[in-house]
Amino acid sequence: MASSRIATLLAEQRLERVIGHVSDFWLPVNQELLKEIRQEVTHATDDLATPAIISKLKGDVSLFFHSLKKLAELIQNSGREITSDNPIQLLEEGGIAGLREIFSDSGEITRFTFEEGTEAQLSRFHEMLVSASTSVALAESYGFDEEAAYTAAIMRQLGLTLIAWSYPGIYQEAILSLGKNPNSSLEQEVAKQLGFTPQLLAIHLFRRWGFDESYCSRYGLRELQSTEEADDFSGEEFANIAELCKVGEALARAHHPEIYPKSRYDLVEALHVISSRLGDSGMQFVREQIDHSTAIYQTFMPDICKCGLADLYALPEVVGHDAELSELRRNPFLNCCSPEMGRAVRRLYTHIDGGLEASVCTRVFVDEVVPVARFQGGCVYTADPSIMMLIPQLPFGELTLREPVGVDYSVVLSSGDLISLAFQDLEPVVEYKKSQNGQLCTAIAGMFGGDQRVGVLYLEIPELVSDFVRDEQVLHFQVLRHALVDCLRLKRS
Protein backbone atom coordinates (compact mmCIF):
# COMPACT_ATOMS: atom_id res chain seq x y z
CA MET A 1 0.00 0.00 0.00
CA ALA A 2 2.79 2.39 0.94
CA SER A 3 4.63 1.75 -2.33
CA SER A 4 1.41 2.35 -4.26
CA ARG A 5 0.86 5.69 -2.51
CA ILE A 6 4.45 6.70 -3.21
CA ALA A 7 4.09 5.78 -6.89
CA THR A 8 0.88 7.82 -7.09
CA LEU A 9 2.55 10.78 -5.40
CA LEU A 10 5.52 10.63 -7.77
CA ALA A 11 3.20 10.46 -10.78
CA GLU A 12 1.30 13.52 -9.53
CA GLN A 13 4.54 15.42 -8.99
CA ARG A 14 5.72 14.48 -12.47
CA LEU A 15 2.44 15.69 -13.95
CA GLU A 16 2.80 19.02 -12.15
CA ARG A 17 6.34 19.45 -13.48
CA VAL A 18 5.19 18.69 -17.01
CA ILE A 19 2.30 21.16 -16.71
CA GLY A 20 4.72 23.85 -15.59
CA HIS A 21 7.14 23.07 -18.41
CA VAL A 22 4.60 23.02 -21.26
CA SER A 23 2.99 26.19 -19.90
CA ASP A 24 6.34 28.00 -19.98
CA PHE A 25 7.37 26.81 -23.44
CA TRP A 26 3.90 26.46 -25.01
CA LEU A 27 3.54 25.89 -28.78
CA PRO A 28 4.89 27.83 -31.77
CA VAL A 29 2.68 30.58 -33.14
CA ASN A 30 2.57 32.33 -36.47
CA GLN A 31 4.35 35.58 -35.70
CA GLU A 32 2.85 37.44 -38.67
CA LEU A 33 -0.65 36.55 -37.54
CA LEU A 34 0.16 37.57 -33.97
CA LYS A 35 1.44 40.95 -35.18
CA GLU A 36 -1.66 41.42 -37.34
CA ILE A 37 -4.06 40.62 -34.48
CA ARG A 38 -2.24 42.94 -32.07
CA GLN A 39 -2.61 45.77 -34.58
CA GLU A 40 -6.31 45.02 -35.15
CA VAL A 41 -7.27 44.92 -31.46
CA THR A 42 -5.35 48.15 -30.90
CA HIS A 43 -7.17 50.06 -33.63
CA ALA A 44 -10.65 48.48 -33.31
CA THR A 45 -13.25 50.89 -31.95
CA ASP A 46 -16.13 48.50 -31.19
CA ASP A 47 -17.09 44.82 -30.93
CA LEU A 48 -17.96 44.54 -34.61
CA ALA A 49 -14.37 43.47 -35.27
CA THR A 50 -14.49 40.66 -32.68
CA PRO A 51 -15.90 37.78 -34.84
CA ALA A 52 -13.32 38.33 -37.60
CA ILE A 53 -10.45 38.34 -35.10
CA ILE A 54 -11.71 35.17 -33.40
CA SER A 55 -11.99 33.52 -36.82
CA LYS A 56 -8.32 34.31 -37.39
CA LEU A 57 -7.43 32.91 -33.96
CA LYS A 58 -9.02 29.61 -34.97
CA GLY A 59 -6.47 29.49 -37.78
CA ASP A 60 -3.68 29.16 -35.20
CA VAL A 61 -4.38 26.55 -32.51
CA SER A 62 -1.61 27.87 -30.29
CA LEU A 63 -2.97 31.43 -30.32
CA PHE A 64 -6.53 30.17 -29.83
CA PHE A 65 -5.68 28.33 -26.61
CA HIS A 66 -3.41 31.16 -25.44
CA SER A 67 -6.33 33.57 -25.83
CA LEU A 68 -8.66 31.25 -23.94
CA LYS A 69 -6.18 30.89 -21.09
CA LYS A 70 -5.58 34.65 -20.79
CA LEU A 71 -9.29 35.47 -20.93
CA ALA A 72 -10.01 32.92 -18.18
CA GLU A 73 -7.34 34.60 -16.04
CA LEU A 74 -8.90 38.02 -16.66
CA ILE A 75 -12.35 36.77 -15.67
CA GLN A 76 -11.09 35.21 -12.43
CA ASN A 77 -8.90 38.21 -11.53
CA SER A 78 -12.00 40.39 -11.74
CA GLY A 79 -13.75 38.17 -9.18
CA ARG A 80 -16.15 36.62 -11.67
CA GLU A 81 -16.69 32.98 -12.64
CA ILE A 82 -16.51 31.37 -16.05
CA THR A 83 -20.14 30.80 -16.96
CA SER A 84 -20.04 29.96 -20.67
CA ASP A 85 -19.40 26.35 -21.67
CA ASN A 86 -18.45 27.44 -25.19
CA PRO A 87 -14.89 28.82 -25.51
CA ILE A 88 -15.63 30.64 -28.75
CA GLN A 89 -18.70 32.22 -27.18
CA LEU A 90 -16.55 33.10 -24.16
CA LEU A 91 -14.13 34.98 -26.41
CA GLU A 92 -17.05 36.72 -28.13
CA GLU A 93 -18.51 37.79 -24.77
CA GLY A 94 -15.15 39.25 -23.82
CA GLY A 95 -15.47 41.48 -26.85
CA ILE A 96 -12.78 43.71 -28.26
CA ALA A 97 -11.92 44.90 -24.75
CA GLY A 98 -11.09 41.36 -23.68
CA LEU A 99 -9.04 40.72 -26.80
CA ARG A 100 -7.21 44.00 -26.26
CA GLU A 101 -6.30 42.89 -22.73
CA ILE A 102 -5.14 39.50 -23.98
CA PHE A 103 -2.84 40.93 -26.64
CA SER A 104 -1.70 44.09 -24.84
CA ASP A 105 1.38 42.25 -23.59
CA SER A 106 4.07 42.50 -26.25
CA GLY A 107 6.13 39.70 -24.70
CA GLU A 108 6.82 36.33 -26.27
CA ILE A 109 4.03 33.75 -26.12
CA THR A 110 6.24 30.77 -26.90
CA ARG A 111 9.88 29.70 -26.93
CA PHE A 112 9.43 27.63 -30.07
CA THR A 113 9.30 28.47 -33.77
CA PHE A 114 7.94 26.49 -36.69
CA GLU A 115 11.31 26.70 -38.42
CA GLU A 116 12.95 24.56 -35.74
CA GLY A 117 10.20 21.94 -35.69
CA THR A 118 10.85 18.38 -36.76
CA GLU A 119 8.61 16.53 -39.21
CA ALA A 120 7.02 14.65 -36.30
CA GLN A 121 6.31 17.88 -34.41
CA LEU A 122 4.84 19.65 -37.42
CA SER A 123 2.70 16.61 -38.21
CA ARG A 124 0.87 17.21 -34.92
CA PHE A 125 -0.53 20.46 -36.32
CA HIS A 126 -1.42 18.64 -39.52
CA GLU A 127 -3.35 16.00 -37.57
CA MET A 128 -5.18 18.65 -35.55
CA LEU A 129 -6.16 20.40 -38.79
CA VAL A 130 -7.51 17.26 -40.46
CA SER A 131 -9.28 16.13 -37.29
CA ALA A 132 -10.91 19.50 -36.66
CA SER A 133 -12.00 19.92 -40.28
CA THR A 134 -13.53 16.44 -40.37
CA SER A 135 -15.33 17.01 -37.08
CA VAL A 136 -16.79 20.28 -38.36
CA ALA A 137 -18.00 18.53 -41.53
CA LEU A 138 -19.69 15.79 -39.50
CA ALA A 139 -20.99 18.00 -36.68
CA GLU A 140 -24.58 18.39 -37.87
CA SER A 141 -25.00 14.65 -38.46
CA TYR A 142 -24.14 14.07 -34.79
CA GLY A 143 -26.36 16.86 -33.51
CA PHE A 144 -23.57 19.28 -32.57
CA ASP A 145 -22.83 22.78 -33.80
CA GLU A 146 -19.63 23.42 -35.72
CA GLU A 147 -18.04 25.46 -32.93
CA ALA A 148 -18.42 22.61 -30.44
CA ALA A 149 -17.01 20.11 -32.93
CA TYR A 150 -14.01 22.30 -33.69
CA THR A 151 -13.29 22.95 -30.02
CA ALA A 152 -13.56 19.31 -29.03
CA ALA A 153 -11.31 18.16 -31.86
CA ILE A 154 -8.44 20.47 -30.95
CA MET A 155 -8.89 20.06 -27.18
CA ARG A 156 -8.54 16.28 -27.45
CA GLN A 157 -5.20 16.62 -29.24
CA LEU A 158 -3.74 19.50 -27.24
CA GLY A 159 -1.93 17.29 -24.71
CA LEU A 160 -0.23 15.15 -27.33
CA THR A 161 0.87 18.22 -29.29
CA LEU A 162 2.34 19.87 -26.20
CA ILE A 163 4.31 16.72 -25.41
CA ALA A 164 5.59 16.49 -28.99
CA TRP A 165 7.07 19.98 -28.73
CA SER A 166 8.23 20.13 -25.11
CA TYR A 167 9.41 16.50 -24.88
CA PRO A 168 10.47 15.57 -28.44
CA GLY A 169 12.64 12.68 -27.24
CA ILE A 170 9.75 11.03 -25.42
CA TYR A 171 7.43 11.65 -28.36
CA GLN A 172 9.87 10.15 -30.87
CA GLU A 173 10.44 7.14 -28.63
CA ALA A 174 6.66 6.66 -28.44
CA ILE A 175 6.49 6.66 -32.25
CA LEU A 176 9.21 4.02 -32.43
CA SER A 177 7.45 1.92 -29.79
CA LEU A 178 4.19 2.18 -31.71
CA GLY A 179 5.93 0.70 -34.75
CA LYS A 180 6.82 -2.34 -32.66
CA ASN A 181 3.36 -2.55 -31.04
CA PRO A 182 0.85 -1.80 -33.81
CA ASN A 183 -2.13 -2.74 -31.63
CA SER A 184 -1.22 0.00 -29.18
CA SER A 185 -1.82 3.73 -29.69
CA LEU A 186 0.45 6.75 -29.64
CA GLU A 187 -1.33 8.00 -26.52
CA GLN A 188 -0.70 4.70 -24.75
CA GLU A 189 2.99 4.68 -25.70
CA VAL A 190 3.43 8.23 -24.40
CA ALA A 191 1.60 7.32 -21.19
CA LYS A 192 3.93 4.36 -20.61
CA GLN A 193 6.85 6.76 -20.43
CA LEU A 194 5.23 9.65 -18.56
CA GLY A 195 2.89 7.74 -16.27
CA PHE A 196 -0.17 9.71 -17.40
CA THR A 197 -2.09 10.17 -20.63
CA PRO A 198 -1.85 13.24 -22.88
CA GLN A 199 -5.57 13.79 -22.31
CA LEU A 200 -4.98 13.93 -18.55
CA LEU A 201 -2.36 16.62 -19.15
CA ALA A 202 -4.89 18.68 -21.12
CA ILE A 203 -7.56 18.21 -18.43
CA HIS A 204 -5.24 19.45 -15.68
CA LEU A 205 -4.21 22.41 -17.84
CA PHE A 206 -7.83 23.47 -18.25
CA ARG A 207 -8.41 23.04 -14.52
CA ARG A 208 -5.44 25.28 -13.82
CA TRP A 209 -6.90 27.87 -16.17
CA GLY A 210 -10.13 27.86 -14.18
CA PHE A 211 -12.38 25.47 -16.11
CA ASP A 212 -14.07 22.70 -14.13
CA GLU A 213 -13.96 19.00 -14.98
CA SER A 214 -17.42 19.01 -16.57
CA TYR A 215 -16.12 21.51 -19.12
CA CYS A 216 -13.54 19.00 -20.30
CA SER A 217 -15.92 16.05 -20.40
CA ARG A 218 -18.37 18.16 -22.38
CA TYR A 219 -15.76 18.30 -25.13
CA GLY A 220 -14.75 14.66 -25.11
CA LEU A 221 -11.83 14.81 -22.65
CA ARG A 222 -11.79 12.23 -19.89
CA GLU A 223 -9.28 10.75 -17.49
CA LEU A 224 -8.31 7.45 -19.10
CA GLN A 225 -5.98 5.07 -17.37
CA SER A 226 -2.57 4.93 -19.06
CA THR A 227 -3.37 1.55 -20.62
CA GLU A 228 -6.96 2.31 -21.59
CA GLU A 229 -7.92 3.29 -25.08
CA ALA A 230 -11.23 3.39 -26.91
CA ASP A 231 -10.66 3.87 -30.60
CA ASP A 232 -12.61 0.84 -31.82
CA PHE A 233 -15.39 1.92 -34.17
CA SER A 234 -17.11 -1.44 -34.50
CA GLY A 235 -20.58 -1.77 -33.01
CA GLU A 236 -20.59 1.72 -31.49
CA GLU A 237 -23.31 4.30 -31.89
CA PHE A 238 -21.60 7.64 -32.29
CA ALA A 239 -23.84 9.30 -29.71
CA ASN A 240 -21.46 11.82 -28.14
CA ILE A 241 -18.88 14.32 -29.16
CA ALA A 242 -15.96 12.03 -28.32
CA GLU A 243 -17.18 9.54 -30.91
CA LEU A 244 -17.55 12.36 -33.43
CA CYS A 245 -13.93 13.37 -32.83
CA LYS A 246 -12.66 9.81 -33.22
CA VAL A 247 -13.70 9.81 -36.87
CA GLY A 248 -11.58 12.87 -37.60
CA GLU A 249 -8.72 11.49 -35.53
CA ALA A 250 -8.79 8.26 -37.52
CA LEU A 251 -8.73 10.16 -40.81
CA ALA A 252 -5.83 12.25 -39.50
CA ARG A 253 -3.88 9.12 -38.56
CA ALA A 254 -4.55 7.71 -42.01
CA HIS A 255 -2.50 10.55 -43.48
CA HIS A 256 0.57 9.42 -41.55
CA PRO A 257 1.31 5.73 -42.15
CA GLU A 258 4.95 6.53 -41.35
CA ILE A 259 3.78 6.98 -37.73
CA TYR A 260 0.69 4.78 -37.40
CA PRO A 261 1.04 1.09 -38.39
CA LYS A 262 -2.74 0.63 -38.67
CA SER A 263 -3.37 3.79 -40.66
CA ARG A 264 -4.96 1.81 -43.50
CA TYR A 265 -7.58 0.41 -41.15
CA ASP A 266 -8.14 3.89 -39.71
CA LEU A 267 -8.88 5.16 -43.20
CA VAL A 268 -11.30 2.35 -44.01
CA GLU A 269 -13.21 2.93 -40.76
CA ALA A 270 -13.28 6.71 -41.18
CA LEU A 271 -14.49 6.49 -44.78
CA HIS A 272 -17.19 4.04 -43.74
CA VAL A 273 -18.53 6.39 -41.06
CA ILE A 274 -18.30 9.46 -43.30
CA SER A 275 -20.19 7.79 -46.16
CA SER A 276 -22.85 6.38 -43.82
CA ARG A 277 -23.35 9.79 -42.19
CA LEU A 278 -23.03 12.10 -45.18
CA GLY A 279 -23.77 9.86 -48.16
CA ASP A 280 -21.73 9.16 -51.27
CA SER A 281 -20.60 12.77 -51.54
CA GLY A 282 -19.55 12.88 -47.90
CA MET A 283 -15.86 12.54 -48.55
CA GLN A 284 -15.97 15.42 -51.00
CA PHE A 285 -17.65 17.59 -48.35
CA VAL A 286 -14.97 16.66 -45.81
CA ARG A 287 -12.30 17.44 -48.36
CA GLU A 288 -13.78 20.89 -48.94
CA GLN A 289 -13.61 21.59 -45.21
CA ILE A 290 -9.97 20.54 -45.15
CA ASP A 291 -9.21 22.66 -48.21
CA HIS A 292 -10.73 25.64 -46.39
CA SER A 293 -8.54 25.00 -43.36
CA THR A 294 -5.54 24.58 -45.62
CA ALA A 295 -6.15 28.02 -47.07
CA ILE A 296 -6.08 29.45 -43.55
CA TYR A 297 -2.81 27.69 -42.79
CA GLN A 298 -1.25 28.82 -46.06
CA THR A 299 -2.14 32.41 -45.20
CA PHE A 300 -1.18 32.45 -41.54
CA MET A 301 1.17 29.48 -41.16
CA PRO A 302 3.38 29.34 -44.25
CA ASP A 303 6.07 27.52 -42.28
CA ILE A 304 3.88 24.45 -41.97
CA CYS A 305 2.95 24.51 -45.63
CA LYS A 306 6.62 24.68 -46.59
CA CYS A 307 7.11 21.39 -44.79
CA GLY A 308 4.82 19.61 -47.22
CA LEU A 309 1.71 19.53 -45.06
CA ALA A 310 -0.38 21.55 -47.49
CA ASP A 311 -0.88 18.44 -49.62
CA LEU A 312 -3.49 16.93 -47.33
CA TYR A 313 -4.90 14.37 -49.71
CA ALA A 314 -2.26 12.12 -51.13
CA LEU A 315 -4.55 9.26 -50.13
CA PRO A 316 -7.04 7.86 -52.66
CA GLU A 317 -10.76 8.10 -51.98
CA VAL A 318 -11.19 4.41 -51.25
CA VAL A 319 -8.53 2.19 -49.77
CA GLY A 320 -9.44 -1.26 -48.53
CA HIS A 321 -8.90 -4.95 -49.02
CA ASP A 322 -9.05 -4.68 -52.82
CA ALA A 323 -6.42 -1.91 -52.81
CA GLU A 324 -4.13 -3.98 -50.63
CA LEU A 325 -4.45 -6.96 -52.97
CA SER A 326 -3.69 -4.65 -55.89
CA GLU A 327 -0.51 -3.48 -54.16
CA LEU A 328 0.58 -7.07 -53.59
CA ARG A 329 -0.04 -7.92 -57.24
CA ARG A 330 2.12 -4.98 -58.27
CA ASN A 331 4.76 -5.58 -55.60
CA PRO A 332 4.74 -9.23 -54.48
CA PHE A 333 7.61 -8.70 -52.01
CA LEU A 334 5.67 -6.10 -50.00
CA ASN A 335 4.32 -8.56 -47.45
CA CYS A 336 7.82 -9.94 -46.79
CA CYS A 337 9.51 -6.71 -45.73
CA SER A 338 9.73 -5.13 -42.28
CA PRO A 339 6.68 -3.25 -40.92
CA GLU A 340 8.53 0.07 -41.11
CA MET A 341 9.52 -0.55 -44.71
CA GLY A 342 6.00 -1.70 -45.57
CA ARG A 343 4.53 1.53 -44.22
CA ALA A 344 6.99 3.66 -46.18
CA VAL A 345 6.27 1.83 -49.45
CA ARG A 346 2.50 1.94 -48.95
CA ARG A 347 2.79 5.66 -48.32
CA LEU A 348 4.63 5.91 -51.64
CA TYR A 349 1.80 4.04 -53.38
CA THR A 350 -0.72 6.57 -52.06
CA HIS A 351 1.26 9.23 -53.94
CA ILE A 352 1.41 7.07 -57.06
CA ASP A 353 -2.30 6.26 -56.96
CA GLY A 354 -3.10 9.86 -56.09
CA GLY A 355 -1.86 10.93 -59.51
CA LEU A 356 1.37 12.71 -58.59
CA GLU A 357 3.82 13.09 -61.45
CA ALA A 358 6.41 10.36 -61.97
CA SER A 359 9.25 12.78 -61.18
CA VAL A 360 7.66 13.69 -57.83
CA CYS A 361 7.02 10.05 -56.94
CA THR A 362 10.60 9.15 -57.82
CA ARG A 363 11.89 11.93 -55.57
CA VAL A 364 9.75 10.61 -52.73
CA PHE A 365 11.14 7.16 -53.51
CA VAL A 366 14.79 8.19 -53.11
CA ASP A 367 14.30 10.71 -50.27
CA GLU A 368 11.77 8.93 -48.05
CA VAL A 369 11.67 5.22 -48.91
CA VAL A 370 15.22 4.14 -49.75
CA PRO A 371 16.67 5.43 -46.42
CA VAL A 372 14.09 3.39 -44.48
CA ALA A 373 15.60 0.27 -46.08
CA ARG A 374 18.98 1.34 -44.63
CA PHE A 375 20.69 2.00 -47.94
CA GLN A 376 22.97 5.04 -47.73
CA GLY A 377 22.78 6.08 -51.37
CA GLY A 378 22.56 4.93 -54.94
CA CYS A 379 21.78 5.82 -58.50
CA VAL A 380 19.10 5.17 -61.08
CA TYR A 381 20.58 4.31 -64.49
CA THR A 382 18.61 4.17 -67.73
CA ALA A 383 19.67 2.42 -70.92
CA ASP A 384 20.41 4.27 -74.15
CA PRO A 385 20.29 1.56 -76.87
CA SER A 386 21.70 3.89 -79.51
CA ILE A 387 25.10 3.96 -77.79
CA MET A 388 24.75 0.79 -75.68
CA MET A 389 25.29 2.78 -72.48
CA LEU A 390 23.62 2.89 -69.08
CA ILE A 391 23.36 6.58 -68.21
CA PRO A 392 23.22 7.76 -64.55
CA GLN A 393 20.01 9.78 -64.38
CA LEU A 394 19.46 10.18 -60.65
CA PRO A 395 22.36 9.79 -58.19
CA PHE A 396 21.26 10.27 -54.57
CA GLY A 397 22.52 9.93 -51.04
CA GLU A 398 26.15 9.06 -50.31
CA LEU A 399 28.07 7.02 -52.90
CA THR A 400 31.41 5.58 -51.73
CA LEU A 401 32.12 2.71 -54.14
CA ARG A 402 31.68 4.30 -57.56
CA GLU A 403 31.21 7.57 -59.39
CA PRO A 404 27.91 8.07 -61.24
CA VAL A 405 29.27 7.79 -64.77
CA GLY A 406 27.97 6.04 -67.86
CA VAL A 407 28.54 2.28 -68.17
CA ASP A 408 28.85 0.35 -71.43
CA TYR A 409 26.55 -2.67 -71.41
CA SER A 410 27.64 -4.28 -74.65
CA VAL A 411 28.97 -7.80 -74.18
CA VAL A 412 32.35 -6.84 -75.68
CA LEU A 413 33.04 -3.66 -73.68
CA SER A 414 31.18 -4.14 -70.40
CA SER A 415 34.29 -5.57 -68.62
CA GLY A 416 32.19 -7.26 -65.99
CA ASP A 417 31.00 -4.00 -64.42
CA LEU A 418 28.36 -4.50 -61.72
CA ILE A 419 25.88 -2.16 -63.42
CA SER A 420 26.29 -3.92 -66.77
CA LEU A 421 25.99 -7.38 -65.23
CA ALA A 422 22.83 -6.37 -63.37
CA PHE A 423 21.24 -5.04 -66.57
CA GLN A 424 21.80 -8.40 -68.26
CA ASP A 425 20.49 -10.49 -65.35
CA LEU A 426 16.97 -10.97 -64.00
CA GLU A 427 18.13 -11.27 -60.39
CA PRO A 428 19.96 -8.65 -58.29
CA VAL A 429 23.75 -8.74 -58.36
CA VAL A 430 25.76 -8.22 -55.16
CA GLU A 431 29.30 -6.84 -55.04
CA TYR A 432 31.75 -6.54 -52.13
CA LYS A 433 34.32 -3.82 -52.64
CA LYS A 434 36.67 -1.63 -50.64
CA SER A 435 35.84 2.04 -50.35
CA GLN A 436 38.48 4.77 -50.60
CA ASN A 437 39.05 4.65 -46.84
CA GLY A 438 39.73 0.92 -46.99
CA GLN A 439 36.44 -0.31 -45.57
CA LEU A 440 34.76 -3.31 -47.17
CA CYS A 441 31.33 -2.21 -48.39
CA THR A 442 28.47 -3.87 -50.20
CA ALA A 443 26.49 -2.80 -53.24
CA ILE A 444 23.37 -4.28 -54.82
CA ALA A 445 22.23 -3.62 -58.37
CA GLY A 446 19.24 -4.91 -60.26
CA MET A 447 17.58 -4.41 -63.60
CA PHE A 448 14.19 -2.71 -63.60
CA GLY A 449 11.60 -2.36 -66.30
CA GLY A 450 8.13 -3.27 -67.39
CA ASP A 451 7.67 -5.09 -70.68
CA GLN A 452 11.33 -4.45 -71.50
CA ARG A 453 14.58 -3.67 -69.70
CA VAL A 454 14.71 0.04 -68.91
CA GLY A 455 17.64 0.49 -66.57
CA VAL A 456 19.37 -0.45 -63.33
CA LEU A 457 18.75 0.48 -59.72
CA TYR A 458 22.05 0.64 -57.82
CA LEU A 459 22.18 0.90 -54.00
CA GLU A 460 25.00 0.90 -51.45
CA ILE A 461 24.79 -0.50 -47.93
CA PRO A 462 26.46 1.54 -45.15
CA GLU A 463 29.68 0.15 -43.74
CA LEU A 464 28.16 -0.54 -40.35
CA VAL A 465 25.69 -3.06 -41.76
CA SER A 466 27.63 -4.42 -44.73
CA ASP A 467 29.52 -7.36 -43.20
CA PHE A 468 27.21 -9.58 -45.19
CA VAL A 469 23.98 -9.15 -47.11
CA ARG A 470 21.01 -10.11 -45.00
CA ASP A 471 17.91 -11.71 -46.48
CA GLU A 472 15.93 -8.68 -45.32
CA GLN A 473 18.15 -6.33 -47.32
CA VAL A 474 17.70 -8.40 -50.47
CA LEU A 475 13.94 -8.43 -49.92
CA HIS A 476 13.93 -4.68 -49.39
CA PHE A 477 15.89 -4.24 -52.61
CA GLN A 478 13.30 -6.31 -54.47
CA VAL A 479 10.51 -4.19 -52.99
CA LEU A 480 12.31 -1.03 -54.06
CA ARG A 481 12.96 -2.36 -57.56
CA HIS A 482 9.26 -3.05 -58.09
CA ALA A 483 8.26 0.28 -56.52
CA LEU A 484 10.55 2.19 -58.89
CA VAL A 485 8.78 0.60 -61.86
CA ASP A 486 5.47 1.84 -60.47
CA CYS A 487 6.88 5.32 -59.77
CA LEU A 488 7.87 5.60 -63.43
CA ARG A 489 4.48 4.23 -64.58
CA LEU A 490 6.16 1.49 -66.63
CA LYS A 491 3.84 -1.13 -68.09
CA ARG A 492 4.27 -4.69 -66.89
CA SER A 493 3.81 -7.72 -69.09
Model description:
The structure is a single chain. With 493 residues, this protein is α+β, with helices and mostly antiparallel strands. Among the domains are: 114-309, no CATH class; 347-487, GAF domain (Beta-Lactamase, 2-Layer Sandwich). It is built from 20 helices and 6 strands. Strand 5 (440-449) and strand 6 form a beta hairpin. Helix 6 (119-142) crosses helix 14. The model is unreliable at 225-239 and 306-325 (pLDDT under 50).
What is the topological layout?
Blueprint: H1 2-25, H2 31-43, H3 50-57, H4 61-77, H5 87-102, H6 119-142, H7 146-166, H8 168-180, H9 186-194, H10 198-209, H11 213-218, H12 241-254, H13 263-278, H14 282-300, H15 302-309, H16 321-330, H17 339-353, H18 358-369, E1 377-384, E2 389-397, E3 407-408, H19 418-424, E4 429-434, E5 440-449, E6 453-461, H20 471-487
Helix pairs in contact: 2-3, 4-5, 6-7, 6-12, 6-14, 7-8, 7-10, 7-12, 8-9, 12-13, 13-14, 14-15, 17-18, 17-20, 18-20
List keywords for this structure.
alpha+beta; Beta-Lactamase; 20 helices; 6-stranded antiparallel β-sheet; 493 residues
Record field, number of beta strands: 6
What's the number of helices?
20
User: For the CA atoms, what is the radius of gyration?
Assistant: 26 Å
Quickly give the structural class.
alpha+beta
Average predicted local confidence, pLDDT: 81
Largest sheet entry: 6 strands, antiparallel
Q: What is the succession of H and E elements?
A: HHHHHHHHHHHHHHHHHHEEEHEEEH
Low-confidence stretches: 225-239, 306-325
- Which percent band covers the strand fraction? 5-15%
Terminal residue distance: 70 Å
Helix content: 55-70%
Strand order of the largest sheet: 3-2-1-6-5-4
Q: Estimate the global geometry from the Cα principal axes.
A: elongated
